[in-house]
């Protein structure tokens, strides 16, 4: 059985978004338990020239549900206009991405897998490729980087987390709609 683009992209994003939601919950609980101000963790980054915590949630949103929504248009432009500023805003962004992913039709995604997409930023065309190339070679890699960086910042700040928190719930088979 060949691997579909949907199978290669969507379940991994769903799984890691589930993990990201858990890490957000644990980070907030950590700030409460330690008597910290939320800003201490929300404003943290690995190094001064890297994005702080909420930007990584936004990047996970951009490189999952938002990106999938733009693929049929043939143009991808990242959207970093609404950076979450609280634990609840971060959870809402993760939930929005998960809802978008849940609604992706596998057949629709396969139909556009070889369609061209152009990456445009600041009015400039930066690169072109197929939907498959963008989702697997650009978005999936960026998504995983930002999810791992969010986890890493939280660990660096003392949040007690393990690998399974990062990984999230393992993907399960979707119920068949064919009427067995």
Strand order of the biggest β-sheet? 1-2-3
The structural class is mainly alpha
Number of E strands: 3
Number of helices: 7
Query: Looking at the structure, what is the overall shape?
Result: globular
Largest sheet: 3 strands, mixed
- Helical content stands at 55-70%
Contiguous uncertain segments of 5+ residues: 176-180
Cα Rg: 17 Å
Order of helices and strands: HHHEHHEEHH
Which percent band covers the strand fraction? 5-15%
What is the terminal-to-terminal distance?
19 Å
The chain-level mean pLDDT equals 93
Keywords:
180 residues, mainly alpha, 3-stranded mixed beta sheet, globular, disordered C terminus
Offer a quick outline of the entry.
The chain is mainly alpha-helical and 180 residues long.
Q: What do you see in this structure?
A:
The protein has 180 residues and is mainly alpha-helical. Helices cover 59% and strands 8% of the residues. It has seven helices and three strands; from the N terminus they run αααβααββαα. The protein has helices spanning 5-34, 38-42, 53-70, 87-102, 106-112, 131-156, 163-167; strands at 75-76, 116-121, 124-130. A three-stranded mixed sheet has the order 1-2-3. β2 (116-121) and β3 form a beta hairpin. The longest helix is centred in the first third of the chain and has 30 residues, at 5-34. It starts with a helix and ends in a 13-residue tail after the last helix. The model is unreliable at 176-180 (pLDDT under 50).
């Amino acid at each position: 059985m060949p691997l579909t683009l949907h199978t290669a992209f969507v379940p991994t994003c769903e799984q890691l978004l589930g993990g990201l939601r858990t890490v957000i919950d644990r980070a907030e609980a950590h700030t409460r338990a330690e008597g910290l101000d939320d800003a201490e963790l929300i404003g943290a980054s690995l190094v001064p020239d890297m994005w702080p915590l909420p930007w990584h949630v936004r990047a996970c949103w951009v490189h999952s549900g938002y990106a999938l929504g733009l693929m049929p248009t043939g143009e991808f432009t990242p959207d970093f206009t609404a950076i979450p500023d609280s634990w609840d805003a971060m959870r809402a962004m993760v939930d929005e991405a998960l809802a978008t992913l849940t609604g992706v039709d596998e057949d629709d995604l396969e139909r556009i897998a070889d369609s061209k997409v152009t990456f445009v930023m600041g009015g400039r065309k930066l690169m072109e490729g197929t939907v498959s190339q963008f989702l697997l070679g650009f978005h999936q890699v960026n998504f995983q980087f930002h999810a791992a960086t969010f986890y890493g910042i939280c660990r660096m700040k003392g949040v007690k987390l393990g690998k399974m928190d990062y990984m999230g719930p393992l993907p399960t088979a979707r119920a068949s709609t064919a009427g067995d």
